[in-house]
């Protein structure tokens, strides 16, 4: 391919899929700066025409093993992407969420290659697709792999939107009947769980734009209203009104202000003095 043809191809890709185009540019630049990583970056990013192909390759090598080979895992992931294009759309929204909200993240290629919260979330998306197809056994197998590899346990029946950031991710648990809407940010050690051995609908419903601080436990079939904030270490047993902040054990309302999508701003201050925090500050 001539330089002119390559430039046209790059311009077309940047227009049609700007996140993937930028990811490839970042991977190429990193390969030049770190020659020892060049073969890894080519295998995981630069050898693939689409983001879906790169992600299926990378995920399959992370969670594949002796019982289910990386090739078999990749076939399942590719099948999910082909059958449900909405998964690829959610992947891009999740990448953008991490890049925009995490101050430690400086590139899309970092999200794709190194952020285990992102990896666990995309593994869940494939498991959820399998669950919806009636393949519960394989879906639960994917859940088990994710729990072992990423220390994140998301039931494949849970309903999770797009534009989700799971920061640091270690110890996150999301139960079977939980709902997490779009543009939510969840820090490490968060549990969206039940309160005992209830049957049927028993897990939290987290509405759009919610920010959940590190170590928070949200238990029971309760609603966390749009743009609410939950402080780190809180135990939430009752519904949280929209645009309110709760903190403590058990959690209580500490303020209700007009706050639009705190999950995006990652504003983790509780009071104006800046003495209390919602998250880990990392």
Report what the structure shows.
This protein is of the alpha/beta class and 282 residues long. It folds into 2 domains: 151 residues, Orthogonal Bundle (serine acetyltransferase, domain 1), CATH 1.10.3130.10; 125 residues, 3 Solenoid (UDP N-Acetylglucosamine Acyltransferase, domain 1), CATH 2.160.10.10. Helix content is 45%, strand content 14%. It has 10 helices and 15 strands. The strands form 3 sheets. The chain has a 6-stranded mixed β-sheet. A 5-stranded parallel β-sheet has the order 1-4-7-10-13. A hairpin with a 4-residue loop joins strand 14 and strand 15. The longest helix has 17 residues. The radius of gyration is 20 Å and the shape is globular.
Instruction: Give me the CATH superfamily of the largest domain.
Output: serine acetyltransferase, domain 1
Structural class: alpha/beta
Helix content: 40-55%
| Share in β-strands | 5-15%
CATH fold type of the largest domain: serine acetyltransferase, domain 1
Strand order of the largest sheet: 3-6-9-12-14-15
How many helices does DSSP assign? 10
Shape: globular
Low-pLDDT residue spans: 272-278
The secondary-structure element order is HHHHHHHHHEEEEEEEEEEEEEEEH
**Could you say how many structural domains there are in total?**
2
Q: What does the largest sheet look like?
A: 6 strands, mixed
Strand element count: 15
Gap from first CA to last CA: 45 Å
What's the CATH first level of the largest domain? Mainly Alpha
Rg over C-alpha atoms, rounded to the nearest angstrom: 20 Å
Q: Average pLDDT value?
A: 91
What's the CATH architecture of the largest domain?
Orthogonal Bundle
């Amino acid at each position: 391919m001539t330089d002119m043809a390559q430039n046209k191809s790059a311009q077309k890709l940047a227009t049609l899929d700007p996140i993937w185009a930028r990811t490839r540019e970042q991977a190429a630049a990193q390969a030049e700066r770190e020659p020892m990583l060049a073969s890894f970056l080519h295998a995981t990013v630069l050898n693939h025409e689409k983001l879906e192909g790169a992600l299926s390759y990378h995920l399959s090598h992370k969670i594949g093993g002796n019982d289910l080979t990386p090739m078999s895992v990749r076939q399942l992931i590719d099948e999910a992407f082909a059958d449900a294009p909405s998964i690829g759309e959610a992947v891009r929204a999740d990448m953008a969420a991490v890049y925009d909200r995490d101050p430690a993240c400086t590139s899309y290629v970092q999200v794709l290659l190194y952020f285990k919260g992102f990896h666990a979330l995309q593994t869940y998306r494939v498991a959820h697709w399998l669950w919806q197809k009636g393949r519960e056994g394989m879906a639960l197998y994917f859940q088990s792999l994710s729990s072992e590899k990423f220390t994140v346990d998301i039931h494949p029946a849970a309903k999770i939107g797009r534009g989700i950031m799971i920061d640091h991710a270690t110890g996150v648990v999301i139960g079977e009947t939980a709902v997490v809407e779009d543009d939510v940010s969840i820090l490490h050690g968060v549990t969206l769980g039940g309160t005992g051995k209830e049957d049927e609908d028993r897990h939290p419903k987290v509405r759009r734009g919610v920010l959940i601080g590190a170590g928070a436990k949200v238990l029971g079939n309760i609603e966390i209203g749009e743009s609410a904030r939950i402080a780190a270490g809180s135990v939430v047993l009752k519904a949280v009104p929209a645009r309110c902040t709760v903190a403590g054990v058990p959690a209580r309302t500490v303020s209700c202000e007009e706050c639009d999508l705190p999950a995006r701003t990652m504003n983790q201050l509780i009071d104006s003095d800046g003495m209390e925090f919602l998250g880990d500050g990392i």
